[in-house]
Amino acid sequence: MDQVRQTIPQPAHQSARPTFSELFTPKLVTVLREGYTLEHFKADFIAGLTVAIVALPLSMAIAIGSGVTPERGLYTSIIGGFIISALGGSRFQIGGPAGAFIVLVAATTARVGVDGLLLATMMAGVFLLAIGYLRLGTYIKFIPYPVTVGFTAGIAVIIFSGQIVELFGLTLPGKEPGPFVPKLIALGEAAGTMNIAATFVAALTIVTIALLKRWRPKWPAMLIAIGLASLAVAMFALPAETIGTRYGGIPRSLQWPVLPPVSLGRMVDVLPDAIAFALLGAIESLLSAVVADGMTGRRHRSNCELVAQGFANIASALFGGICATGTIARTATNVRAGAHGPVSGMIHSVILLVLMLVAAPLASYIPLAALAGVLAVVCWNMFEKQAFATLLRASRGDALVLMATFLIVVFRDLTEGIVVGFVLGSILFIDRMSKSIAVEVDQPLVQEDIADGSTAYDAGEASDANTVVYRISGAFFFGAASTVGTVLDRIADQRKNFILDCSAVPFFDSTAANVIEGAAHKARRAGVRFIISGASPRIRRMLINHGVKRPLVTYAASIKDARAQLASESAGMAGRAG
Question: Does residue 354 sit in helix, strand or coil?
Fold first, then answer.
């Protein structure tokens, strides 16, 4: 889930910086401007219907797994999903409750209740608006791929562990523990209370989904599996708990928008949850949009997408829903179903609303074990087994980041897992970049220079015994400062002239400029003429701002120009001497 950022030259007639309208115009407006026909609507309607059938059981299952009532998952798909499609920066994004949020939402609900959860969701929406309008969405892509894989796998393990009670119909003597290890201990102690009927229903659901995915991949496997499980429970009067027996069914209408209780103390209390919701929502939604881009060849507007996510979460909370974000599986289903644009996502939400209004009484018969079976399949798909195995084999660094993120998410905390994984990934990147820089020399000043990483690059340049030429290749930043500084410290007074070629340096930072400044002062004290050649205008400005200027150094466009400059000065001095 890593990309490499590239700089693409802009044509002369284009602005180097996109305008506000270019960044924040919803894709719905773009699609309508292109011309929206009846054929396009038919394609979007079929895709929207297909996604709604997938989203119906999934929304309820995610809500129950998150520790709230099933209708709140439907509210999220209806309200949040509609707004994400209408205002978002992706043509194909489908919004709603996501499995990745189950652990966070369940922990928040257990700690501060549903009202606190709704307030945290609204605050997360405000944070997402700020991230989008401040144009920070482009930085989300810098989260390392091993972090996202490890994080997702860790969440899958935690979600599955939370469904074991429903999968086997276990009866716990008290409240189910939140931490992973105590939870496993409690589940082991309750193994003797297993309900055979619930286990059968869960197994029937999982096997049905697996067989349909294999033999009839276009059929709505989850909906069929839940229907079959519900029918089995009703026909054979199986002692398995259902939505009706635990929650009393789901309402046949949307609730009116209501603002949750708001106070300064309450906002401070849920602030960490809101930040976690916003960061995870940004990552999940933009990742989903990238997946859709890869499937279709289109490009999403990341900051516009985050703004839509912000409005969607605020509205979802007002209507009693939970966190809304872009969902990868439903988005991919939307693309495969032949969607033309965002209208399909809006239709998916409308169809869910109609189904809730018309068929809500039927939801009472859905067994909780069947919904747990659906989430077990979701967990299996979330755990990217091939990517996980590939990263373990790729390199020690990637394996370290992957396992650190995974284990901390499972045994400690979600946010800590992301932070530690990101920090480790950044440190490894700095280490790799620092090793990529090279210092080449036409001929070493002293034999020991060879062992310090300097290598000959053009023996033909060594025509002047009084001049030495060093060439730096690669990004020169704080991570490489020690390597380059060690080589530059070998500037000795045996040579009168020193040329430092920076034509192959794409980037300088302040630490690098400080290293060059120190080398320049040392050269001046030794009476060595110091010329910097090939520096780009940006690098030259950086050096000059750090005091690397006359009389310490002079600048030349190339090594040839630097030699010509030295030759001219020598000729001038010889003329004055004559």
Answer: helix
